[in-house]
Amino acid sequence: MNHDNISRISADLNLSSKNVQATVALLEEGATIPFISRYRKEATGSMDEVAVEAVSDLLGKLIDLDKRRESILGSIEEQGKLDDELRSKINKARNMRQLEDLYLPYKPKRKTKGQAAVEKGLEPLAVKIFAQKGDPVAEAEQYISPEKGVENIEDALAGARDIIAEKIAENMGLRQAVRSLFESKAKIESRATKIALAADSEDKASKFRDWFNWTEPARKAAGHRILAMFRGERDKFLKVSIRPPEDEGFDVLSSRVVKSTSAASKQVEKAGIDSYKRLLAPQMETELRSKLIEKADDEAIKVFASNLREILIAPPLGSKNILALDPGFRTGAKLVCLDAQGSLKHNDTIYPVTSGGKKKEAADKVVALVKKFAIEAIAIGNGTAGRETEQFIKELDLPDSLPIIMVNESGASVYSASAIAREEFPDYDITVRGAVSIGRRLMDPLAELVKIDAKSIGVGQYQHDVDQKKLAESLTRVVESSVNMVGVELNTASAKLLESVSGLGATTATNIINWRNENGPFASRKALLKVPRLGPKAFEQCAGFLRIRNGENPLDETAVHPERYKTVALMAKDLKTTVSELIKSPELRQQIDLKKYISDDLGLPTLEDIMKELEKPGRDPRKEFEMVSFDESVTELKDLKEGMLLNGIVTNVTNFGAFVDVGVHQDGLVHISRLADNFVKNPSDFVHPGQAVKVKVMEVDIKRKRIALSMKDSDR
């Protein structure tokens, strides 16, 4: 364990060094973030997942920094140029940028103009001119050497300036001065290219029209604008530059390297201008671009992660008999009936969005199936023909109490064609699998959505433009966090759901399923230790997040970790009762003095968590399911009129606003300025995917398929 890194993490995150050290030790032992935040509160000082994740992320960056530091030290030492002063500077570098600046003069590189001048023997001349003493012309005469390629005085002076330009560009202090200028004064300018202005590309380029003549300070540019401009540049519709005024760049260098108005100083000034134009400005623009992209990526990934979490922990309808429909026009609607466990009991194809006999046949089938399978809810995919199919179902002679619910089907087609779907339903085609997924999403969004690549769920902004590795890592963490927050029923969970449980992976999840198939349901958590390749360490990490209803031990249905069962048993014994009675009786629990059970590794935070679990064993932490009904007179874009007040469901949240489904197959945008009468800085703090909202139609552009909506009270 690197104690310098512990101190750095503690200072940067404003956390106790003792708690940081304990957290790092747990991470290095292989403990997961959900496990640490839930079951090691005494060690971490009750850090939540966000804090533990921040420690983990910064630790990773510092480890990478240390690896790079060692590599740089080794490289310079091999060159025989590593002295104590340079070693000290490298060891004190606090970030990659400082390290790379220190390494730049020693970094192996392709042959440069300055190196070529050095090979011509012009370095002593460059040193004399840079000192800005004497007559540079007189000095240059001594270095004329046709055999070395120095034909005249100007050749000698030009070579010396090339050497000086590179020395300036490699000077850490001067680089930082120019860097600071770029960070504070650079403007991001976007202009249309000839390709964008060409008539045959007008439609493709139209989405970038806002950036055809755009300028703003780079430090103020919002992440979504940066990503939009850089995408336009990649598509060759935009030309983007990010630089401060050029004369200010010259001034920054001149004020630091030019000492007088002498002839030598004028040579240095020329070298400085060349250094800025040819070397420093392009390097700093590249660096600033990377910094802006990283910032934009982080913002976009944060939005995506926030949206994904809300979708994953959306309220479940619960275990019900479901009739699910994946609508379609020409090909009909695929219909499936599922039992309360999500098992497929029946499938068919009906044609509700037609006229005549097929529509009547569809109506008769639905009514009969609702009765035959004791259907408790109907789920309808919200894609093509969704609203029309919903209208058809509502007109049938069905019980008034039977809920008819539109389900967001984003990613259902991805699941249908996946290996998981083929394994679950090897005898059915993708249309049946898609309908099953729609029905199961209504029952339990989390259990179904974990089977789909999170990037296919359709939330976030510019997801294909951001760092894909960072995005995947972030979304994986969100899935794991959500699964562990809700908990998993061990005896009914799919392998894919188990895979996201703390301490488990694909192999152990499959082994659990195989053991369950061969031996029947798990009677207790401790039976997990019989599963091949699931040892004590994995058991420690996963056990608290797995639930067993009606198991041998009533605590197996709670989030109380097995390592604390003895404590709960002692509480019951002290009250002369059983654990089961302790769970059932609030009066008994009120008699417990938690301080009595504090020990070296067990404190009040965990004891209080235990008491909360005893109050609500097996209770789902997600919110109650809420139905939303769309306006039945509005099913297509052309039905919308300015001024309409409509029910909607938030489908996606970005940094510039929220997209809302109002039932017309095209989401409308509530711009950030129209979310509320009061200023909203972060839309995700105000709305979330799945939220039911009331919106007003402000503008409809049928040609561009754009709907402007408002949630402001003053607009209603």
Question: How would you describe what is shown here?
Answer:
Helix content is 49%, strand content 11%. By secondary structure, the chain is an alpha/beta fold. It folds into five domains: 3-106, Orthogonal Bundle (Arc Repressor Mutant, subunit A), CATH 1.10.10; 114-301, Tex N-terminal region-like, CATH 1.10.3500; 322-443, 2-Layer Sandwich (Nucleotidyltransferase, domain 5); 497-615, Tex RuvX-like domain-like (DNA polymerase, domain 1, Orthogonal Bundle); 637-715, Nucleic acid-binding proteins (OB fold (Dihydrolipoamide Acetyltransferase, E2P)), CATH 2.40.50.140. Strands 6-5-4-7-8 form a five-stranded mixed β-sheet, sandwiched between helices. Strand 12 (657-661) and strand 13 (668-671) form a beta hairpin. The radius of gyration is 33 Å and the shape is globular. The two termini are 59 Å apart.
How many domains? Answer: 5
Using DSSP, what is the number of strands?
Answer: 15
- Name the structural class: alpha/beta
Strand order of the largest sheet: 6-5-4-7-8
Oligomer: single chain
Stretches where pLDDT is under 50 for at least 5 consecutive residues are none
The major sheet is characterized as:
5 strands, mixed
Which architecture name of the largest domain does CATH use?
Answer: Orthogonal Bundle
Instruction: Please report the distance between the alpha carbons of the first and last residues.
Output: 59 Å
Shape: globular
Q: Report the portion of residues in β strands.
A: 5-15%
Q: Give the averaged pLDDT, no decimals.
A: 93
CATH class of the largest domain: Mainly Alpha
Throw out a few tags for this protein.
single chain; 716 residues; Arc Repressor Mutant, subunit A; 5 domains; 31 helices
